[in-house]
C-alpha cells in the first residue's frame, strides 16, 4: 500500500497539472518528470513514496495508445520502490513485477539506453531479492550483462563501472560448494580487474575508488596457494582507493576503506620473507586505522559499522597484548 503524499509542493503541483489546459500526453510527461526529480536527490523516504505516487498518476492517465509512457511509468515506480530505505520483500517483488511488465514495451519502442537502464535496475532488484530466496543470482548477473551490451566503457564509463562492480559482488554472493568457492571469488577479481582496465583515476575517480576498494576485499579473501601475495595486492588496491577517498570529503567511504585495509594488515607479517617474526608493526598500524574508522562511523551515526570495527579493534588489542 503506497502511503499518501504529504508533501505540500507535490499537492500544489498536482493541482496545477489537473487544472491546466495541457494535453493528457503533456500531463503524463510532467508527472513522470516530477517523479524523476524526487528520485534524483531524495531527502527522506517520503520523497520516494511521492515519486511512486506520481508515477501511478501518470500510469492511470495513459490510454491504450500510450504504451511507451505506461511502461515508463511502471519503470519509474520500480526504481523508486527499490530505493526506499529498509525496503522489504513485498516492495521488491512489486518493483520486479513492474520492470518485467515494462521491459517488453521498452524493448519495442524505447531508445536502447532506456532499455539498458531498466535491465540494470532489474538486476539490482533481483540481487536484492536473493537473500529472501525469491530470485537467483544468475538471473541478476544475466540482466546486468544485457545492460553491458549498451553501457560500454567508451560511451558510458560510469554505468560500465557500476555494472562490473555489481556483477563482481553478485559472484561473491553466490552460494556455491566449497570446491567452487575459489572459482566465484576468482571471477569477481577478474571482473573488477577488467573494469579497471578502462576506468581511470583521473577521469572517473569515484568509480575508480569503488572498484579498487572492492577489488581489495575480493583479493583479501580469495582462497589461494599464495595468500601473502593476495594480501599485498589487496593493500595496494586499498591504497589506490585512498588516493580518492579522504576523511574530509568522503568520510564514510574513507572509513570503509581504512577498516578494510586494517583487516588486511592484521594478517600481514611485518616481513613477508620472515613470517615467523610476527606482525606487531602492522597490527599497530591496523589499530590506528580501526580507531579512526570507529570514530568516523560513530560520528556519522553508522552504529552497526562502528560496532563491527570496535569488535575487530578489541580482538586486535588482545593480539597486541599477547605479542
Question: How far is it from the N-terminal to the C-terminal residue, by CA?
Answer: 58 Å
**Low-pLDDT runs:** 1-5
How is the main sheet built? none
Q: Strand portion, in percent? A: under 5%
Total DSSP E strands: 0
Average pLDDT: 91
String of helices and strands: HHHHHHHHHHHHHH
Which word captures the global form?
A: elongated
| Helical residue percent band | over 70%
- CA radius of gyration is 23 Å
DSSP summary: helix tally:
14
Q: Could you say which structural class the secondary elements and strand pairing correspond to?
A: mainly alpha
What brief labels describe this structure?
single chain; 323 residues; mainly alpha; 14 helices; 0% strand; elongated; disordered N terminus
